[in-house]
Structures are given as C-alpha cells and as structure tokens.
Write a structure and sequence with these properties.
It is a single chain. Helix content is about 10%, strand content about 40%. By secondary structure, the protein is mainly beta. The chain has one domain: Nucleic acid-binding proteins (OB fold (Dihydrolipoamide Acetyltransferase, E2P), Beta Barrel), CATH 2.40.50.140. A 5-stranded mixed β-barrel has the order 1-2-3-5-4. The model has no long low-confidence stretch (mean pLDDT about 85).
C-alpha cells in the first residue's frame, strides 16, 4: 500500500532527523533507506569538492536530515532529499556498519 503524501509530510516534516541505511552509490550521491517507510532517500554529493566527497560503505547507517519530500504518481520515483552534517561524514565513529 502506498503511504499518502499527507501522512508522509506529517510524519517526516522538513528538518526531521532520521537514521538511514546506505543502499547504493551513484555518481551524484547515495540512495538510502529510512527504516519504517517504503520511500527511498537521496543524499546528493554534487556540491562537494572532490577531496570532501564522502566514501560511505553500502550497509552503513548515518544520521541525516530531511530537506524535502518529492512526490510522484510513480511509486519508485517518490523520494526524500536529505542532507548530512559534515561533522558526521568527517567522524567515522558516527558511521556504523550494519552487522547482518
């Protein structure tokens, strides 16, 4: 079942901190899962200097902040835009690898 947009916006308003799981790396950022919701998130790295681009492992968890929810009639195109504080990326102890 698709979660209605109104429920998503109430549950995850802009500025909400969430723990996310890194699922894939693409040239423009990382796709992440937010536990408890079927919608993926995107953490973009386009604005980072090459030396500052994060190198996150698939399966690691990080704290991110929701910027925006992008709705779509196509379920796979619904996504959250996220930001990650530079201090989180600079401190490996704040990034945890999931133990399966």
């Amino acid at each position: 079942m698709i979660t209605p947009t109104s429920e998503i916006n109430k549950r995850f308003p802009s500025g909400t901190k969430v723990r996310v799981i890194v699922r894939s790396h693409v040239r423009f950022g990382y796709f992440v899962d937010i536990p408890g919701i079927e919608i993926r998130g995107l953490f973009e790295t386009v604005g980072y200097e090459p030396s500052e681009k994060p190198n996150l492992e698939i399966g690691s968890t990080i704290e991110a902040v929701i910027q925006q929810f992008r709705d779509s009639k196509e379920p796979l195109k619904r996504q959250f835009r996220l930001t990650v504080h530079p201090a989180v990326l600079a401190n490996p102890s704040l990034i945890k690898l999931l133990q399966d």
